[in-house]
Amino acid sequence: MTVPFEKYHGTGNDFLIIDADEHTVPDRGELARRECDRTDGVGADGILFLALEEAFQPPRVVMTLVQPDGETAPMCGNGARCAAEWAMQRTGTDSVMIDTQAGTLRADRTDDGVAVEMTELTFDPAGIPVDADEGVFEEEIEGLEVTMVNTGVPHAVSFVDDVDDVDLETVAPPVRHADVFPRGTNVTVASPDGDGGFSQRTYERGVEGETDSCGTGAVAIAVVARRLGYTDADPVEVRPPGGDLQVSFNDRGRAMLAGPVEHEFDGEVSVEPPIEP
Questions:
Q1: Could you give the residue numbers annotated as active site?
Q2: CA–CA dist 72, 101 (Å, integer)
Q3: Given a cut of 90, is residue 277 above it in pLDDT?
Q4: Domains in the chain, CATH or no CATH each
Q5: For the whole model, what pTM was predicted?
Q6: How is 34-49 classified by DSSP, letter by letter?
Q7: pLDDT at res. 274
Q8: CB within 8 A of 70, min separation 6: which ones?
Q9: Which residues are annotated as part of the binding site for substrate?
Q10: Upper half-sphere CA count for residue 155 (Cβ side, 13 Å)
């Protein structure tokens, strides 16, 4: 038995999209572990299972992201932008609402791609979560000086002179698995460009490796940099390896993540058929 997918990416952060209304996948975790593998599978940073609800205005799409480790992630900024583009293509609209496990987001088409209003962020230790009595700001954890924030998922953000000089595959895993993080964390490094923007690299929890882009990580860089006084730019230009993202702040104080989205190709993947009752 096979089910069709569409492959999308947002600044190199790539996903297989499966229409959850039309196709049943009994074991989503197994499919993600197999097909996200870049050697033996299609290759992706995750699988988005999307269910469209066209009766609402604007239309709504329910988004579930299953990562390469087979686990579900509550939020993904670039994944949400890809989900929005997918839903807008189907409904012929320029705005959609996205229901995620971290909250409901609004996404709008822009001249340069898709912008999504992110969930509320927090520096509160319980909301990250991190085992600490107060907010973690520029504190050393497993050899890396980090600030902790949750932008839908937890991020340990570290500002360095040059992100290209960081051996991320060596530095990040001890932080990602540190005992103070009961659910683990993403690890994001950033270096200033001198104009209020930042270069970015992120080691993603669930992918267990570096990705070409991370939307929640870009937002984490922007909000932490503003909190620590490293920039007052709005929007904040953030440049992961896969392309440029913009993080702005609307009149509700919410972060907006904007950037390009591309549809790469379509295909099919094998799944086990559902068990008949």
A1: 76, 214
A2: 9
A3: no
A4: 2-118+260-270 (3.10.310.10), 125-245 (3.10.310.10)
A5: 0.93
A6: HHS-TTTSS--S-EEE
A7: 63
A8: 28, 29, 30, 32, 33
A9: 13, 67, 77-78, 186, 204-205, 215-216
A10: 32
